[in-house]
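Chain particulars:
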Amino acid sequence: MSLSTEFERVSLPLEYPFTIARGTSESVENVVVRIADDEGNEGVGAAAPSSHYGETAATVEAVLPDLLSVVEEVGEPHRLDRIERRLRETVERNPAARCAVSIALHDLVCKRLDVPLSRYWGLDPEDAIPTTYTIGIDDAERMREKTETAIERGHSKLKVKVGTDRDEEIVSTVRAAAPDATIRVDANEAWSPREAVRKIDALAEYDLEFVEQPVPAGNPEGMRFVRERSALPIAADESCITLSDIPRIADKADIANLKLMKCGGLREAKRMIHAARAHGLAVMLGCMVESNAAIAAAAHLAPLLDYADLDGSLLLADDPYEGVPTTGSRIELGELDRAGTGARPK
């Protein structure tokens, strides 16, 4: 068997400017990867790089030729373990680039077998949990409008970005606009440990589910300090990147937040899920702002999760790819009527 590969950079404008504690984005760049066999099957994946983790679209494009040469040399897409091991040996960092290749390979393998990815893994699509929809930082009136629009679109679970000097105003505004929604907040490392404890005490009055990454990842003892005193459960995101981080956060957080673009691929994500369970952690799968060419694959892991934050494609003004069907917050894996991840051009 022979495999052919290609990739292209795509610029994706967002529906709204998206602000978190670290800054604002109006568009994102993904790099789409395609891997085809000699029988006419094609797998699609994408990288959604984050400069916070040292990656850009340019660095992804720089390493993809080496990564895709590994795929072509192995030549057998079903040898996923061998290929992903060699990808790590070839490019140690650049997890989003490796992830794009991993997703495209899994999509190709499942199309060759004519099964959806969740069935390939033996998962029950009916166990897929709902996703949140993220409300970025903005002025109070715009946050109220965005919240009301999200609720009108059927999103019953919201994630609210905080990490400002007006966090209580932000949360109170969203709660007033969505009195019945499940709400969690994400500080993106913006608080000091003592500030986090104070703010969480105040924000807990708004009936929140949990708090994500309250303090910088470089302050693990600060995370422990917050968790021991927090009125709400604590999720680790920037502190939880790869498999080796799971035991390090086990006594400092209640929830491990995985992302495919942080860990480098689907097989590594599954290993992290099982490791987190073994360490007594609940499991969340998040995402970057990304096309369905990437996020469709993440949706197939939803039956294994406690929490999902897979709204990256929903934040786009227009996604060139379709993915797993969704109804508001619901990930409708059981409604997927095609093999692979479900990603396909519109």
